Structure to design on (365 residues):
């Protein structure tokens, strides 16, 4: 019997919302708004929140709150919500990050997690005077980062010798509250990213995509995990932008309005940056490498997941992905506060009913 699907949401700690469009977005990147949003999310059934990491203005995101500080603030404002902090290995030392998260884990009663982001925005690294590695090298560095962090969190004295990080007899006290350690998420569509997920990560984040595409990614990573002696140890999180309305016609009209009012200059700038990053992989299989203009209006291909329609239609679509092996659904919204609440009150209960019906059918079979 499978576990219930977990629901997560993108924290709008970066200005501009989750779509690169001039359409009205009743969403705010400030703390007060996000505090209320987090409290609403845990009340209506969301398990996770994911803070975004962006260090400088780009592509419609003029203002950004730093992810680790913002995550801690949300943890201290909630009681059950787990907050996933996005971090760049190139801008953190693994021991410093391990210490920061361990402290936050104690302050929050064991509710931290990290999302290791290998990086797509070259301008941030060059502006900060940091080297910009080629695609597969960025993932190799991220894999070392995860291995080093896990070593620090789980060993009494950590020693790690890699090409990017070296640690000798480092002792972290106290360890995180969570056993064996806070969950480690990681994204990326390329073969390098999938191989890294199979060997090291706890949960593999995927951009939005059709059931056929997502099913293929899950199968590949599951096989890679099995080859690494980790069969069944990797979870799968899927990005989706939810447009849930009382009628399918209304939901599709909103989608059309978002795309019709897209900020063409910002979308094209973002697209030029990320598609170059995706095609720079050794096999040309990276994130966004086949994304269209319409896909890029939502940063992580969220429209492709197809969570558009009535609560009943969206719940059925979600179950399609769960049957493929998706364990966590990461959601974005146009008007976060009101739409996240509507989703939690109208869609999540339907998903739970469908899960219960399938579980009962399995038992009776």
């Amino acid at each position: 019997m499978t576990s219930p699907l977990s629901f997560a949401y993108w924290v709008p700690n970066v200005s501009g919302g989750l779509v690169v469009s001039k359409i009205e977005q009743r969403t705010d990147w400030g703390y007060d708004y996000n505090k209320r949003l987090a409290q609403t999310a845990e009340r209506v059934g969301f398990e996770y929140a994911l803070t975004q990491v962006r260090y400088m203005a780009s592509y419609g995101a003029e203002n950004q709150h730093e992810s680790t500080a913002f995550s801690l603030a949300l943890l201290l404002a909630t009681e059950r919500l787990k907050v996933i902090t996005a971090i760049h290995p190139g801008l953190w030392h693994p021991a410093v990050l391990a210490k920061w998260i361990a402290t936050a884990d104690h302050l929050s009663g064991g509710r931290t997690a990290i999302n290791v982001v290998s990086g797509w925005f070259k301008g941030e690294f060059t502006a900060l005077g940091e080297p910009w590695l080629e695609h597969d090298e960025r993932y190799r560095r991220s894999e070392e980062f995860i291995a080093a962090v896990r070593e620090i969190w789980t060993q009494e004295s950590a020693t790690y010798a890699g090409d990017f990080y070296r640690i000798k007899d480092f002792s972290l006290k106290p360890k995180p509250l969570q056993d064996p350690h806070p969950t480690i998420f990681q994204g990326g569509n390329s073969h390098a990213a999938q191989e890294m997920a199979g060997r090291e990560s706890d949960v593999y984040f995927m951009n939005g995509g059709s059931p056929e595409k997502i099913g293929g990614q899950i199968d590949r990573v599951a096989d890679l995990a099995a080859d690494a002696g980790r069969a069944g140890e990797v979870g799968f999180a899927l990005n989706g932008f939810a447009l849930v309305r009382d009628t399918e016609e209304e939901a599709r009209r909103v989608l059309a309005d978002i795309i019709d009012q897209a900020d063409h200059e910002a979308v094209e700038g973002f697209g030029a940056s990320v598609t170059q990053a995706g095609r720079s992989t050794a096999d040309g299989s990276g994130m966004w490498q086949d994304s269209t203009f319409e896909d890029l209006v939502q940063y992580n291909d969220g429209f492709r997941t197809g969570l558009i329609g009535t609560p009943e239609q969206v719940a059925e679509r979600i179950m399609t992905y769960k049957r493929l092996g998706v364990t966590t659904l990461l959601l974005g919204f146009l008007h976060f506060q009101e739409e996240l609440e509507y989703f939690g009150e109208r869609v999540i209960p339907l998903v739970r009913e469908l899960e219960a019906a399938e579980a009962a059918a399995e038992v009776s079979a």
